[in-house]
């Protein structure tokens, strides 16, 4: 989904160096990281294989091809990558049809960014078919554009999705704040040059230069995000 993108001259507001906010989806705005693991567990059980819970940290936050490929190799399951990808996406869509809980603070943050006309993009490793099912729940009107994992040459942990989102908004990646929940997503955002807020959902994430770790989205608001850009003013 892509809607009207603001002109570059409208990006900064109230003297802030913050030009745009780029948000991950699964585990950041919607509480679905556990859904993906449940779906993977169920699909592989139907193939006669039990997943080791230790693998969850390997597959979280990454592109479908990487996660599915790893699980095929780890289990030795007799299924091709293309077929497995379809089965996983089908099962995930079925699950979110019944429930799609937002992460605490997500609705409030989206409302605040919209109220202050901050250009915002949804950037996910999930495929377009999944993003388009989630957007109506989040509110498609909150996002100037969205970038799916199957729409870029390389998805997370590569910088391509965040570079594409920044370019689509006419923003400098250095002046974009990214909110992510996994090491894979943080790696992608940092490689793009963005300032990162990490809200860990499954595995731990340590603070680092240009990376702030918070316990939940309740700690993230517009003044907080603008404050990340202090050195760029």
Automatic annotation (TrEMBL):
Keyword Translocase: no
Molecular function, one GO term: hydrolase activity
UniProtKB keywords: Hydrolase
Annotated TM spans: none
The UniProt record lists the keyword Hydrolase: yes
Superkingdom, natural source: Bacteria
InterPro entries, sorted: HAD-like_sf (IPR036412), HAD-SF_hydro_IA (IPR006439), HAD_sf (IPR023214), PGP-like_dom2 (IPR023198)
Protein name per Swiss-Prot or TrEMBL: Hydrolase
Protein source organism: Streptomyces variabilis
């Amino acid at each position: 989904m892509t809607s009207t993108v603001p002109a570059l001259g409208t990006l900064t507001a109230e003297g802030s160096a913050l030009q745009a906010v780029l948000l991950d989806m699964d585990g950041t705005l919607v509480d679905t990281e556990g859904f993906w693991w449940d779906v993977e567990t169920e699909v592989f059980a139907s193939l006669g294989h039990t997943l080791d819970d230790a693998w969850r940290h390997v597959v979280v936050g990454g592109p479908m091809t990487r996660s599915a490929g790893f699980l095929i190799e780890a289990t030795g399951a007799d299924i091709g990558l293309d077929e497995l990808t379809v089965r996983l996406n089908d099962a995930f869509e079925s699950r979110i049809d019944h429930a799609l809980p937002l992460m605490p603070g997500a609705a409030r943050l989206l409302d605040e960014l919209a109220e202050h006309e901050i250009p915002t993009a949804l950037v996910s490793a999930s495929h377009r078919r999944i993003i388009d099912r989630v957007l109506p729940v989040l509110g498609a009107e909150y996002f100037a554009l969205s970038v799916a994992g199957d729409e870029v040459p390389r998805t997370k942990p590569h910088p391509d999705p965040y570079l594409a989102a920044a370019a689509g908004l006419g923003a400098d990646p250095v002046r974009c704040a990214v909110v992510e929940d996994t090491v894979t997503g943080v790696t992608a955002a940092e490689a793009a040059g963005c300032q990162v807020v990490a809200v860990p959902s499954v595995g731990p994430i340590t603070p680092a230069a240009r990376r702030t770790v918070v316990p939940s989205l309740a700690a993230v608001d517009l003044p907080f995000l603008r404050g990340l850009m202090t050195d760029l003013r």
